[in-house]
Design a protein that fits this description.
- This protein is an alpha+beta fold and 1036 residues long.
- Among the domains are: 73-223, Calcium-transporting ATPase, cytoplasmic transduction domain A; 359-492 and 530-542, Calcium-transporting ATPase, cytoplasmic domain N (3-Layer(aba) Sandwich).
- Helices cover 44% and strands 14% of the residues.
- The protein contains 33 helices and 28 strands.
- Strands 13, 14, 21, 22, 23, 24, 25, 26, 27 and 28 form a 10-stranded mixed β-sheet that branches. It has a 6-stranded antiparallel β-sheet with strand order 2-1-3-12-4-10, with no helix packed on it.
- Strand 17 and strand 18 form a beta hairpin.
- Helix 6 (232-265) packs antiparallel against helix 7 (283-295), helix 13 packs antiparallel against helix 14 and helix 15 packs parallel to helix 23 (719-757).
Length: 1036
């Protein structure tokens, strides 16, 4: 408990705003300068700290309970040949941990023994990586054949790398001492490990040596506090707060000087002012510091806790939205980051993965080409192709060999059910589709001893001399143009001598601890030659429901789309066309950036840029296409031109890109001061998701890695439309009002204090008592504004039907220096109204200053009730109760204080409410303060309505929803420089509905034909003494 209090206080004290209020509270302890009781600042400060600490304590308590259960869980270890129970937190590195079927792995282990004759078993890693399919784990070769009875006598050394969070990699070595093995080095990989939080499946028991425990496990290293993301609104509020602070300092200096001058010239002439003849050295600082304390409420002390509370509610609204629940899986949306919901309403670029994000990731085997014969072209289903079935029946060598490689070239795990049926568990949906298709064609996969992996058409250059691959190349292109995923299959027979020679080098590469992956790939390339190309498969991955409509709607909202995929170019283009990413010609135009050398890429990039700059005729939907190789060159050697291209382009298709390149593209757009949203579903999208301003993960068939790393997780891509247009827009609107209103109510009371100083000898005397000041920000004005979190300026139907109104959020129209100046002016105007009417109404009354202060405070409360009512768009019972009930609460509280003799307000409210002049004063304050505001609002709604006002009027009159047309944007210059090359060109924004570019007579149209295979994307290594298989290496 003490540690929590210490850490919480330490974290809270690091925030600049908290430091400011803490300094003010400490200064108020100096009785000589404080104009009010210190409780007026200490009370709200302690209350705010207590609310924040309570929230943190609640979360910390639940984490403590969860950790306690995990740490005290009983596990088996083997010591001196005897199994015994210990707590999980007592496991030490080197202990032998014994696991039974369905046990959770308590720490990171290297597998040593398992039940059964096979030296492989399965592991469920869903809790670690979110993937529900079982993984294969293998006993190290050094442990194969060792009798279990000798387990307690085993001695050796495990050489492990420094703990890291990479759950896909473990490069280590094992040395067992004689007599078990003659001190040979046995290389270890991730396949030899059991990682913490995984579950042992389909194996009666297994045991392993602990290598990482506690926070040094892969899971423990993965846990970390994510870097906080600063929203655009937070940045603007920080700037406005800084401006208010500067204004406050100027006011303090001016009034401090004026106060000292008045004291030395006029104050000493007054008989009731008894200043000492000789003052201490700090006399000149007293009045300025007093005004600093008086004006400190310009920055509202309650703004932080108010914003934190409403942000939490915004996140809950997303999770409670029943329209964002995937009915197929029952998956609801989840907000992991509660601090950035308003940024959803300011998104300008969406960068999306393809497979599993735009598509269903439900792979179906549709067509294939074996040798030079196409199957499935007639009916679209190769499994029902009579010619293929006939070839299988007749025992065609090429077909049987093709199906054999298709069945065994994968990482699929076959699992037999109790009924004897085989169920396939696969990490790749492509592999599962191929194995199932092969089984339907009577080539049933039962099991194997090793995995065979590869890549797609990149194996074609390695075909054996003399083999014609033109038909295969044409098949790949044909299938890709149909939007199908293609995979090439090949094989080669190895001589035993060649295999043994290669195996020695492979073992050497497998035993290094540094760059093991690259060394293995280099060795494996020695086998990748003289391959016999068997054919190509084509797998269908359908679009998710609602994807085209979602993209079309969000493009109307002025949001630009980039597709970042690891798939082939033609496949990516066809998917882009089918989901409204780009328009087909003649309405749309694709510009290709390609090349293998710096010179080729430079020419291609320059040509595309020239086309975009010179486009002046009929508007067209223009997009550029670039592959990973060209992207690498463009970003490295022509970054300035590529950034300009990013600024000019509304749509881009980046294919064959790696996870690091995805993150790099996000960073480039962010450097241009765009608000970015990245969405994906797989582990290879995590870096992109974390790099973006907003990361959205889809809980898909590839697991939950993306969803866990994201700020928001959704079940389907179509929910992105509602997430942005409804929740994002409402969050932005509500927080824009809440932030500016918080400053308004604080400035209002502060301006009245300043005006009062001019009739109180510029002495820094407070008009309001300490109790009123303390309750003003925390209670009197907070309840109505917190209920504004349910306010809706437009119905959800109107928002979805007219997505272009999102521009007001994207452009920051509701919170900027101009709108803030309006609220600043409103607070100044209302302060003048309250002060002037109050002073004149009670000028001839023999009133105490406390009475005068209570009249002014009452006027402020009444005005703010009407301000909140005026700014509210959709009234509900709860909002009426909060606004008008708060007024009643104000009088109830003050009646109670007026009944307490020691409160300093004794009988004041009773006397005031019994006077007709008090109620007349309130009426005058409301009329004078709100009359001009209502008149201005009427003028704007009637004669200069915005697009939103037009829709509001249509909703309120019950008329038809009108067409509001385009919303013209204002050009925005790019203030930020892109490192390492500065960019100075302006960033011109396109109007909603209007394509950025138009057709140019000089536009270069490129056909997307077959190209040279990309050596940059080499196939992963595969091991086989008899065959080689090539599959699509999914990185999308």
């Amino acid at each position: 408990m003490k540690r929590f209090v210490y850490i919480n206080d330490d974290e809270a004290s690091k925030e600049v705003m908290n430091q400011y209020f803490l300094l003010i509270a400490c200064l108020q302890l100096w009785s000589l300068i404080t104009p009010v009781n210190p409780a007026s600042t200490w009370g709200p400060l302690i209350f705010i700290f207590a609310v924040s600490a309570s929230k943190e304590a609640w979360d910390d308590y639940h984490r403590f309970l969860s950790d306690k259960i995990a740490n005290e869980k009983q596990v088996w270890i083997v010591k001196h040949g005897i199994k015994k129970h210990i707590q999980a937190q007592e496991i030490q590195v080197g202990n032998i941990v014994w696991l039974r079927e369905n046990d959770e792995v308590p720490c990171d282990l290297v597998l040593l023994f398992k039940c059964g004759k096979k030296w492989t078993h399965t592991l469920q890693t869903a809790a670690l990586d979110g993937e529900t399919d079982l993984k294969t784990r293998v006993i190290p070769s050094a442990c194969v054949g060792i009798d279990l009875e000798l387990l307690h006598r085993m001695k050796g050394v495990l050489e492990c790398p420094v703990p890291d969070k990479d759950i896909r990699r473990f490069d280590a070595n094992m040395r067992l001492f004689p007599p078990f093995i003659d001190n040979d080095v046995c290389s270890l990989t991730i396949k030899n490990t059991l990682l913490q939080s995984c579950y042992l499946r389909n194996t009666e028991w297994a045991c392993g040596a602990s290598v990482y425990t506690g926070n040094q496990t892969k899971l423990g290293m993965s846990r970390g506090i994510a870097e906080p993301k600063l929203t655009a609104m937070d940045a603007m509020i920080d700037k406005l707060t800084g401006a208010i602070f500067v204004f406050q300092i100027v006011v303090v200096l001016v009034l401090g000087v004026a106060g000292n001058v008045w004291k030395d010239t006029e104050a000493r002439k007054q008989w009731y002012v008894q200043y000492p003849a000789e003052a201490p050295w700090y006399e000149l600082l007293v009045i300025p510091l007093r005004f600093e304390l008086l004006c400190s409420i310009m920055i509202p002390i309650s703004i932080k806790v108010s914003l934190d509370l409403v942000k939490g509610l915004y996140a809950k609204f997303i999770e409670w939205d029943v329209e964002m629940i995937d009915q197929e899986t029952g998956t609801a949306s989840y907000a992991a980051n509660t601090a950035i919901s308003e940024d959803l309403g300011q998104v300008e670029y969406i960068l999306t993965d393809k497979t599993g994000t735009l598509t269903d990731n439900k792979m179906i085997f549709r067509r294939c080409c074996i040798g030079s014969i196409f199957y499935g072209n007639e009916n679209g289903d190769a499994l029902k192709d009579a010619h293929l079935l006939s070839a299988i029946t007749s025992g065609s060598t090429d077909v049987i060999r093709f199906l054999t490689v298709m069945a065994i070239g994968n990482t699929v795990i076959p699992v037999r059910s109790k009924a004897g049926d085989i169920v396939y568990k696969a990490q790749s949906q492509d592999e599962e589709a191929l194995v199932i298709a092969a089984a339907k064609l009577n080539m049933v996969f039962v099991g194997k001893n090793a995995n065979l992996l590869g890549a797609d058409e990149s194996i074609l250059p390695y075909a054996c001399a003399g083999q014609q691959t033109r038909t295969i190349t044409e098949a790949v292109e044909h299938y890709a143009q149909l939007g199908l995923r293609t995979l090439c299959l090949a094989w080669r027979e190895l001589e035993e001598d060649e295999y043994l020679e290669w195996l020695v080098k492979f073992k050497e590469a497998s035993s290094v601890l540094v760059d093991r992956e690259w060394r293995i790939a280099e060795v494996c390339q020695r086998l990748e030659h003289d391959l016999y190309i068997l054919g190509v498969t084509a797998i269908e991955d359908r679009l998710q429901d609602g994807v085209p409509e979602t993209i079309e709607t969000l493009r109307k909202a002025g949001i630009n789309f980039w597709m970042l995929t690891g798939d082939k170019q033609n496949t990516a283009i066809q998917i882009a066309l089918s989901c409204n990413f780009i328009s087909p010609e003649p309405k749309g135009q694709l510009l290709l950036i390609d090349g293998k050398s710096e010179e080729d890429v430079s020419r291609s990039l320059e040509r595309v840029l020239l086309t975009m700059r010179n486009t002046t005729s009929e508007p067209k939907d223009v997009a550029f296409v670039i592959d990973g190789w060209a992207l690498e060159i463009a970003v490295k050697h022509h970054r300035k031109d590529f950034v300009e291209l990013a600024i000019l382009s509304r749509t881009a298709i980046c294919c064959r890109v790696t996870p690091s390149q995805k993150a790099q593209l996000v960073e480039i757009l962010k450097s241009c001061d765009y608000r970015t949203l990245a969405i994906g579903d797989g582990g290879n999208d995590v870096r992109m998701i974390q790099q973006a301003d907003i990361g959205v993960g889809i809980s898909g068939r590839e697991g939950l890695q993306a969803a866990r790393a994201a700020d928001y997780s959704i079940g389907r891509f179509r929910f992105l439309k509602r997430l942005i247009l409804v929740h994002g827009r409402y969050s932005y609107n509500r927080r824009a009002f809440l932030s500016q209103y918080s400053f308004y109510k604080s400035l209002l009371i502060c301006f009245i204090q300043i005006f009062f100083s001019f009739i109180s000898g510029v002495s820094g005397t407070s008009l309001f008592n300490s109790v009123s000041l303390m309750a003003y920000n925390v209670f009197y004005t907070s309840v109505p504004v917190l209920v504004s979190v349910i306010d809706k300026d437009l119905s959800e139907t109107s928002v979805m039907q007219h997505p272009q109104i999102l521009f007001y959020c994207q452009a920051g129209r509701l919170l900027n220096p101009s709108t803030f100046a309006g609220w600043f002016g409103r607070s100044l105007f209302h302060a003048i109204v309250v002060f002037v009417i109050t002073i004149h109404a009670y000028a001839n009354e023999k009133s105490e200053m406390e009475e005068l202060g209570m009249v002014a405070l009452s006027g402020c409360i009444w005005l703010q009730a009407f301000v909140v009512a005026q700014e509210t768009n959709s009234f509900t019972v709860l909002q009426h109760l909060s606004i008008w009930g708060n007024l009643v609460g104000f009088y109830v509280i003050n009646f109670l204080f007026s009944a307490i003799p020691s409160s300093g307000m004794y009988t004041i409210m009773f006397r005031l409410c019994s006077q007709p002049s008090y109620w007349i004063t309130m009426f005058l304050i409301i009329g004078a303060g709100m009359g001009p505001i209502f008149a201005l609002k009427y003028y704007r709604y009637t004669y200069r309505p915005s697009k939103i006002n037009i829709l509001q009027q249509a909703e309120r009159t019950g008329g038809p929803i009108v067409t509001i047309g385009n919303i013209e944007t204002q050009p925005r210059t790019m203030e930020k420089e892109v490192s390492p090359l500065p960019i100075t060109q302006p960033k011109n924004r396109s109007p909603v509905y209007e394509p950025l570019l138009s057709e140019s007579p000089n536009a270069t149209r490129r056909s997307f034909g077959p190209g040279t295979p990309l050596e940059f994307f080499q196939s992963q290594s595969r091991l086989s003494s008899s065959s080689g298989y090539s599959r699509n290496c999914k990185d999308n």
